Amino acid sequence: MDETIRITALRERGELLERVSSLQRTLSEVEMERDQLSRASGKLDKDRHTLKSNLDKTERERQRQEELAAKSQMDRTELEHMVRRLEEENAGLQRQMHYLQVNSIDPF
Length: 108
Known about the structure:
This protein is mainly alpha-helical. Helix content is 94%, strand content 0%.
């Protein structure tokens, strides 16, 4: 009878050792997966930071381009006014020159 108990105890011990070994393998796999996830998370954080930096840079460039476009439009409007004034001044000078030519007295 003692032999049966001993054999049963040895079998249970073997099963428990096998279970411990299986749990250790599972733990090792889970730890490896955790480490991989940690590295992936770190890479994602780095990528997110890079993307945010690029987005900020792009936003600043967009604002700069909008400011340049607005300034260009103001400059164009100002130039159009200046051209219109110069054309009016030129037309006035041409009228004045024509008047002087028509009313000039030729001494000869």
